[in-house]
Amino acid sequence: MPSSVIRAYYYDALHTVLRIVFVSGAVYDYEAVPESIYQAMKAAASKGTYFNQYIKDKFKFSRHRDAHG
After folding, report:
1. Is the pLDDT of residue 69 over 50?
2. From CA 17, how far away is CA 35, in angstroms rounded?
3. Rounded distance, CA 15 to CA 22, Å?
4. Which long-range contacts link 10-15 to residues 24+ away (Cβ below 8 Å)?
5. Contact 25, 8 (CB under 8 A)
6. What is the DSSP string of 24-61?
7. CA-CA distance, 4 to 26, in Å (whole number)?
8. What's the pLDDT band for 44 if we cut at 50, 70, 90?
9. Cα–Cα distance measured from residue 68 to residue 60, given in angstroms and rounded to the nearest whole number
């Protein structure tokens, strides 16, 4: 199901970084995210709700860059 807030997300298992690309174009990298959190997000019916409940304000993050296109 497409999210109205999250355009895409990618997980780097080696570095445990979860990259979230928002519909607005903002791109954030969340650090030290366990793979179990990523897998649960993949399975969640609402990516935005899952993000707000289990990721936002729970992990250190940095704004990476804005997505183009």
Report:
1. no
2. 9
3. 21
4. 11/35, 11/38
5. no
6. TSEEEEE-S--HHHHHHHHH-S-HHHHHHHHTTTTS-E
7. 14
8. very high
9. 24
Q: Do 28 and 60 meet the contact criterion of CB atoms below 8 Å apart?
A: no
Please determine, for residue 68, whether its predicted confidence score (pLDDT) is greater than 60.
no
Residue 41 corresponds to which amino acid? M
What length is written for the chain? 69
**Average pLDDT for 44-62:** 96
One-letter amino acid of 9: Y
pTM of the full predicted structure?
0.88
Token pair belonging to 17: 């970084």
User: Does 19 have pLDDT greater than 70?
Assistant: yes
Q: Which two tokens stand for residue 24?
A: 């607005």
Specify the pLDDT at position 46. Answer: 93
Residue pair 64/28 in contact (Cβ under 8 Å)? The answer is yes
